[in-house]
User: Fold these one by one.
Assistant:
Number 1:
Amino acid sequence: MNTPRVKEILSWYGSDNPGTLTNLARLLNHGKLAGTGRLVILPVDQGFEHGPARSFAVNPPGYDPRYHFELAMEAGCNAYAAPLGFIEAAARDFAGEVPLILKINNHDVLCDEKDPMPALTSGVRDALRLGCAAIGFTIYPGSSAWAKMYGQLREASEMAKQNGLAVVVWSYPRGSALSKQGETAMDVCGYAAHIAAELGAHIIKVKLPTDHLEQEAARKVYEKEKVAISTLADRVKHVVQCTFNGRRIVIFSGGPTNNDDAVYQEVTAIRQGGGFGSIIGRNSFQRKKDQALRFLGKIISIYGN
Amino acid sequence: MNTPRVKEILSWYGSDNPGTLTNLARLLNHGKLAGTGRLVILPVDQGFEHGPARSFAVNPPGYDPRYHFELAMEAGCNAYAAPLGFIEAAARDFAGEVPLILKINNHDVLCDEKDPMPALTSGVRDALRLGCAAIGFTIYPGSSAWAKMYGQLREASEMAKQNGLAVVVWSYPRGSALSKQGETAMDVCGYAAHIAAELGAHIIKVKLPTDHLEQEAARKVYEKEKVAISTLADRVKHVVQCTFNGRRIVIFSGGPTNNDDAVYQEVTAIRQGGGFGSIIGRNSFQRKKDQALRFLGKIISIYGN
Amino acid sequence: MNTPRVKEILSWYGSDNPGTLTNLARLLNHGKLAGTGRLVILPVDQGFEHGPARSFAVNPPGYDPRYHFELAMEAGCNAYAAPLGFIEAAARDFAGEVPLILKINNHDVLCDEKDPMPALTSGVRDALRLGCAAIGFTIYPGSSAWAKMYGQLREASEMAKQNGLAVVVWSYPRGSALSKQGETAMDVCGYAAHIAAELGAHIIKVKLPTDHLEQEAARKVYEKEKVAISTLADRVKHVVQCTFNGRRIVIFSGGPTNNDDAVYQEVTAIRQGGGFGSIIGRNSFQRKKDQALRFLGKIISIYGN
Amino acid sequence: MNTPRVKEILSWYGSDNPGTLTNLARLLNHGKLAGTGRLVILPVDQGFEHGPARSFAVNPPGYDPRYHFELAMEAGCNAYAAPLGFIEAAARDFAGEVPLILKINNHDVLCDEKDPMPALTSGVRDALRLGCAAIGFTIYPGSSAWAKMYGQLREASEMAKQNGLAVVVWSYPRGSALSKQGETAMDVCGYAAHIAAELGAHIIKVKLPTDHLEQEAARKVYEKEKVAISTLADRVKHVVQCTFNGRRIVIFSGGPTNNDDAVYQEVTAIRQGGGFGSIIGRNSFQRKKDQALRFLGKIISIYGN
Amino acid sequence: MNTPRVKEILSWYGSDNPGTLTNLARLLNHGKLAGTGRLVILPVDQGFEHGPARSFAVNPPGYDPRYHFELAMEAGCNAYAAPLGFIEAAARDFAGEVPLILKINNHDVLCDEKDPMPALTSGVRDALRLGCAAIGFTIYPGSSAWAKMYGQLREASEMAKQNGLAVVVWSYPRGSALSKQGETAMDVCGYAAHIAAELGAHIIKVKLPTDHLEQEAARKVYEKEKVAISTLADRVKHVVQCTFNGRRIVIFSGGPTNNDDAVYQEVTAIRQGGGFGSIIGRNSFQRKKDQALRFLGKIISIYGN
């Protein structure tokens, strides 16, 4: 049965039908963090996004689609997210064993445009036939192709919600309008999170922001209003505020492999700032499985305490 | 994770997509019998089928749609099955807490034809928006309206399977072509179970058969081939055989209130005969909740041993 | 703003989208009973159902479609319900002035079958283009055409709910399976109300029941369980119980012209029994307007106290 | 590659697209009779049509859907035909191993009308998703429901042909308009075969006719024109003539268990009369598998010589 | 019947329906390599892609669409792949004689953009009416039009899979983002193969990679992780790894006419590296038929040993 915290979270989604709430509950009630309102999700779209060798050569079992289902299950993650092929290749074998998020658009780096625009690679009907709890969709606010992406999200999202699925949006600022530093700037990250929420996302994934402020008009306000952004926990708290004052689930991505302790500190900061969890791909599957399980176990225990 | 038994059961449904397998797994992995391959389901369509007072006056909390969700959850049933209104009235409150089966056709007794034909009362789109794991559909083999019912089931079933839902068929022989005794005759019950399986049902619900043989042509075969039908366990075993030699889930209904010990003996016989479980409505919700919980607890413990 | 009572009522409709809740709120928040959770609705489909002269000759202004909009507005009713033509003929003139319920099926008495089956006379798209808050639909439980009606309601209802409309069901037992007395029998009336609720109606309209019990199987239960049905208030209370223990709006129709005091007593009984209001057609528009306003004013004041 | 005989047969279907020809070729090029233009097909719809015990009790492995795939494959049949459930239950296990014919309508004998009308139990979309080469459809010429059946066949057939499937029609005269003897009368059988051909069937299945003549108007012509119908070979030859003078594939059913030698003689007569083969259900699966393989082997060898 | 190897291969496609498995089995079970799990496919789209004279002048019988069907059949290839016109022109003549792959998009060089984008030239409905086992689709990863192509593939693929067809993807890196050498670079080729697999392809066709590494970020990983790519067999093995660790069928194209022995060595390397076969167009049909048959015979014998 749903914990009070899960019931509270579900109560924020009053315009969604019980089907979508049921799928949100499936995500919130699976794995070691079941019922806590916190989530750790394993995403494996790096094969598509960065290329297979860059993703899996360091830990070759990751070339096998079954590996990631098993990793997500054994680690006690809330869900596993991947593009069509990786899901199709093992969904029958693990039917009902871990909630799935079908990543329905993807981007590769063989043609890495300054203003990226992902391709639609699967859809809501695929998510239904494969038993997924949610679709996942990436937008690149700041890309000149932004409006087309938002429009595609709108269409997929409408259909997903009618059919009782949840919608997870990866909101990654990127494009010729932003400096490299700006992609993780506090103002930009908060803005990107808010856009995803306004587009109707149920779960929002953003990168952890720095204390850089990219846009001049924003910087003035942050300074005038003395918005606290000096610590990572402050910045997480502000992102949470930007996503409907905490009434949308917002989770944070881990980025490339890192010093483990640094990751644990980030997770602690996310927790302190009121973030809902992490989505950790490369840092998980780019190490031996036993190490990955220890690593994810530690992160989960930070959230679970 | 799926137990070996659940994996074995899912392996029988090779023509279904992973979405449908996921929903079958949701049914098999919920409640106190999770993972055993056995199911106890709470159905509450008697308000529609027999009228509200005949259904709920004896235990008035049952007039409230929330009561049955709670009963199914507290008893540890695998699922709760009901018509549209009862599901709609509480699906948001209990989203994700118990697998739901939307009964999409129903029959009332205000116009009780000799050859009954239920009305379509909801559909696959409702099941998706309400977060149900399956649709439920009643057929009355033996009714002169049989072909229309089978045709409606076919259409709903095709759509359910495309969208990753499971299909539960109530196969209740009834109609002017059958004697009253014939409705639960061994040959008729086995035939009804087989028809449901041939129509593509994933889960089949029939009444417990007696040792009566209704059809002359069938009687000759049962006698010549010495099909064992003398004990209830024998008869359950034969029904299981009739549903693809055990490769479809077949469960048994309880009928009207009864001596409890008689019910426990029936359940023991279902278990011995290789049946997959029970669907118990009136016997559950037509007594005080604490008694119902004890009663269902006992049944579940018989299956679970 | 919604009163606590309106908020409570809306909370019962958790599977409906905010669009449908908004239209329910429009009905609950209009007229003199706004915010009380009680409704008095003016329906004028008698022209179609009984013929124009039988309906309007006694008060000829009623031939004019604008008359009924004005009557509903001046009396302070919550809504006005009528078939397509009557709505179309004045909807522009009174746009936004009174919530409308488009009666999308109708039956005439030029061919008055023993087992009546209404015709579909308009639809959800009409309701949307005409600015209606709800569709209205009549079912005749007990007619041999019952299953066809329920199936048509199902389809209209699915579409109405998707588009944010409310669904009002007139549930009038009638047909060769019932005696004349049975049409308003306690058991039959409660059953008919329950069926409408199970079919997903938001608002249910039934006739006031007598203490007659029509069906033998039901009678036994009423007597054994000592269901209180001796006073009209008792019987209203039981109908309310039959519609999800009070968690659906159920209102009562007035029937043919009557002694006014008798009507007021009926209304008092509805109020005492926990009914949500009245739908009063012939008794309103078959008298001069000033008398009608006095009459409706009295009824509304009984509910409003 | 296609033999000259297969090429000749395909040349008769000039209005069908290459997809349908490809599926006809799949049927003609599989099993021990591959390339001969002759077919022996295993049909197993008796579970649905007569009941499971009457069908399988004599040889219980037949309760298992996998058994019939294996029997058809091991015997070297051209194809296996069955209703939805039996196909779904094993299609993945034997994908590509034997051409399948999905029987999309079926009739049971729990309500055995004088004028039978089968139910639609699956459809063209099912046939495509299950990898079938053809749909199978039963018509009962002589039943008062004949026009509805022909109309349903027309719709399914149109869709099947658009999608490159073949259409196999079981044409079984039956109904209140015919005497029992008339069901297999020479004139009736030839007429039924012709009707199926006119309805666009690619493969037609009829019962072996007797020399009885049922219809007076027909009898006069048979006698006046001295149509040869005295031997079984004559009668087969006449059926072949009735199906477009041999330019449609017509095969014959075996009926209930029989003296084996009688069956072999029938098959010899079919061969002599220019029939294209046999469809043999009960006689195959209602004996032990080794006996069934010997029996089918003998039949196939008669056709193959 | 399917060999154990074919059964193993089919087991990787657990999210596909039995229809798609049946068509995969048709490809795997045809020609001289039937049952080995290896494939040699004849593709003839060069007339469209490069122009007819460039394609067929060297061996003029190749202008005739029937020639290629005959070549594929006589050589014992598993399948023949071509655009709409070439298939339409001979599909009736050779119905059922060789599995067909309908190439549903094509690119010509009359307008040869730096960033190529093929045109949709036929579709799934064509594939069904023509009796094809699969659709074929070319993507050009690295072209600035990549996202549009992937999106078109997604739509065609969804429809193909629903209808039981297989999906073959030609994944040819090309476009302004890549150097000429980069088109066949190891990292790029592995990436392109992985993308096709993630897009849901059942069979993936790529060019044989060189040991060049095109992308700096990839090069670092290949060197750090010491991915073996020095021999052609190593590189094939790595491509196989990049396509779900060997759980997708990946075949290799031959490119322009070459020294025959060099081709045999390439084929030997594909076999050693665990590749599933070759798709050989120009090298086959751009020589006299007897030479082509010898050439293909030799290649097939290398795979078949």
Number 2:
Amino acid sequence: MRLIVLTPPYNLILATVSFELIAECSQTRARAGLLHTAHGTIETPVFMPVGTLATVKGLTQRDLGDELGVRILLANTYHLYLRPGHELIRSLGGLHKFMSWPHAILTDSGGFQVFSLSALRTIDDHGVIFQSHLDGATHTFTPESTVDAQLAFGSDILMALDECPEYPVSHEYARQSMHRTLSWARQAKEHFDRRLAQSQDLPNPRSALFPIVQGSMFADLRRECAARLTELDTAGYAIGGLAVGEPRPLSMEMVEATEPVLPRDRPRYAMGVGMPHELSEYVGRGVDMMDCVLPTRNARNGCLFTSQGRVVIKNTRYRDDPRPLDENCRCYTCTRHSRAYLRHLFQSGEMLFAVLATRHNIQRYLDIMREIRHAIISDSFPEYLKCVRSAATNAE
Amino acid sequence: MRLIVLTPPYNLILATVSFELIAECSQTRARAGLLHTAHGTIETPVFMPVGTLATVKGLTQRDLGDELGVRILLANTYHLYLRPGHELIRSLGGLHKFMSWPHAILTDSGGFQVFSLSALRTIDDHGVIFQSHLDGATHTFTPESTVDAQLAFGSDILMALDECPEYPVSHEYARQSMHRTLSWARQAKEHFDRRLAQSQDLPNPRSALFPIVQGSMFADLRRECAARLTELDTAGYAIGGLAVGEPRPLSMEMVEATEPVLPRDRPRYAMGVGMPHELSEYVGRGVDMMDCVLPTRNARNGCLFTSQGRVVIKNTRYRDDPRPLDENCRCYTCTRHSRAYLRHLFQSGEMLFAVLATRHNIQRYLDIMREIRHAIISDSFPEYLKCVRSAATNAE
């Protein structure tokens, strides 16, 4: 392990999001760092809970910030653009004020949702025309318009519009699509820089834009995309198009192909991943930021992640189980309630189940990230990774 | 106003629930008191939030107890008997432990739910046979079995099985039904005393049974029922069969007919009432305890009660309203969020809406009860009542 102090340029600290490397693992690509934003500093590697519509389903902002210690969350441009609309959010002072969230916010570009949720989408080099999944109305996203929407939100980190191809696609399609994503990223960056330079009426002038590496499951395309994107010299880089149905070893291969091309002094964000035992795998491959709906969505469906493995709470064996969900967990749910009560709430369709389950699952994810970070800093990450792998194998 | 110290008999304090009168209004029948239970003392008049299935929908027990200051809540025998079952709850240490609620619990007898929810019910003097609204299975409630279920819960206050007639019914039907309720109350009391005397395996040996005054909308039947019930010398009395569709002046008349017959030194509980502006009306007629699903159910439906009247949050006028729901309210929702954000959550069907709205509505009800109690103790209740009536008239 090496302890590092990479002081970012002074103007970078003031002007935008900046990244500070604290430690690197001596054997893997894992790193620990600090991500500075206008809304506080975030310890990395970090897992970002998903607050699609300006709320993490079932949790209050106080639960998230004060109790769970979340310092950055993700919101969805596609959803918030459709409802309540970015102009409304800007008129109310931006997303932080709108949802009363004092910490950092990352918004995705909406590209992924356009491809996964909306009907009748038409894509060309100009952008994407789509029908709202809410009312069928037609909308257009361009690299410029999604930057504008995210600037109206006042997001700390904005994502450039990308095309996220399904899995599998041909090399030829993936290449064309990757080039479109590349050229959209350039347009987005130009527009972002111009808007920031004008800097009028922006809820958050200290934001940063991250472009997204695509290329489907082709290492050559991933490498090419990453190399070209780094020319944009952005404050961070995302790896998109993962966890879209491909086998997990392939996702890992794509991260391995991409990571060495990305600059060491910028954060890397793997979008939409992953399962609890996968978090350290991504970190071991050089990833600093992740997000996923798994802990929140699975919580609502009765699937709980504990330090001893998964608990599917509807199982009859928990009917009269007086033990906490996870004896090693210090969350409100585990310190106050039994599995029997949680099962009763789930079986009865009670809202409190989602509230308690989500709180626990987020706590579990954040605990894992804290363990990972501590392992990197204390140079025991390779051993930690070994333990996680062995536990995951035993659980299979 | 008279300040009173009515010390309850010593054995009553130890053995069961007891009531202490603190102040009586000099002009109305309003009283302020203290209700002592094995799970703490409750200031009366009190509004009890409804936690049907051992949860107040959308709130954690910590929200309720520590933040809102709820000291007694209501749970439903019918629902908990069907799911998860009273034997399971007893085996897990009783309802307080099961739901992790350190304060008092009142459970109704299940009679009202049998009549309002279940199909194919057959009633005779023995009890009521009904089909579960969940799976159609046949069950029987008797005065004894509902006492047993509530003793298994370890409720602080149990309710005797009653028949709650719909509105309207004939005087003849109401008379027969009232006599059935009377005789069930006697059976329930006998059984309750016997079980308590044996006192084995009871999660809460310091509980009390309240019988329920019925008689539909006939003052003579109400008076007769109340007079006969007082012979049972129970720790408190309930007035049931209100708010079942009758015009509100009739409900008030029934309370007025009943109240003078009930002993002054015991708490009176008006079941299933009422709207915010009605709370002081019931208190002014001598009621000490109330419960209602209105604040919680209306919250989930987007109807919010504020110090300035009702807010129907879906209304377009709140779309960009940056003000808190109620500027006079100190709840989490009002101190942290805008109407615009609440409307967005409601329109999006987000769970956080129910969480925030329920929290506010319960706070509003408890604030009203605190105002009422303060007015009684400071002998300004008649003026308070006048203000409430004038505001309610203006709102019409």
